Amino acid sequence: MVGPPRIAALCALSVGMLLLATGGPSVTSGSPAAQETFTGSTEPVVAPTPAGLPLGGVLLRDVRIGAHESFDRITFEFDGGLPGYKVQYVEPPIRLDGHVAAIEGSAFIQIVMQQAAAHDLNGAPTFTQNEFKPRLKSIIEAQATGDFEAVLSWALGVSGRLPFRVQTFRGPDRLAIDVGHAVEAQEPAGLPQTGERSPSYSSSWPVGVSLAGMLVLLSGAVALAVAVKRR
């Protein structure tokens, strides 16, 4: 027959093991989320001029530049529709009204928009800012280089010969050129990636619970040993 001392010792051992099991650490991953993949090309992108555009061309109303997760974007907003366009890498020098334009960058993208203008039929400007220097990861500078006979042109100074893509949107009418960010070199397989943190350990119970479990387990073991010896 099992006596009360042995029963108490076995209960202490059970409680100690339960506390240790529930108080153990859990592992959570510290790896960052995967970065968006940018898809583009360095080849020229051309679109013909649509039929039925207003006399004098569509009018430029706004130019915006912004940074995104994997690319930088320049957006041209128009009244009256979307122009034809040709977007391509060009070699310097970049011309501005017959003169060489000083544009920051390691490579240059030329944007020529057909049947488009930054002034109305009376010669009044519809958009007056001709230069931006955002100095983002990809787009370093943007500058207007021409506005004559319904041909509107801009040049981008970018940080390298990076892939780009061209998109159009409606409501309002917009032409957007996205320039991808440079892809960082990957470290060899099997090694932690730059900036990747080691797994972090967090306990679902306070550390004191684990210590209490160890003490109860040790006490139960001692009590059991004493009970067996007395027997």
Describe this structure in words.
With 231 residues, this protein is α+β, with helices and mostly antiparallel strands. It has 2 domains: 1-23 and 207-231; 45-180, Immunoglobulin-like. 19% of the residues lie in helices and 38% in strands. The chain contains 2 helices and 15 strands. The strands form 4 sheets. Strands 2-5-8-12-11-10 form a 6-stranded antiparallel sheet, with no helix packed on it. Helix 1 (4-22) packs antiparallel against helix 2 (207-230). The chain starts with a helix and ends with a helix. Mean pLDDT is 80; it is low at 24-31 and 192-205.
Distance separating the two termini: 11 Å
Number of strands: 15
Instruction: Show unreliable segments.
Output: 24-31, 192-205
Percentage of residues in DSSP E strands: 35-45%
> Which CATH top level class of the largest domain fits?
Mainly Beta
Major sheet summary line: 6 strands, antiparallel
Order of strands across the biggest sheet? 2-5-8-12-11-10
**Whole-number radius of gyration?**
34 Å
Helical content class? 10-25%
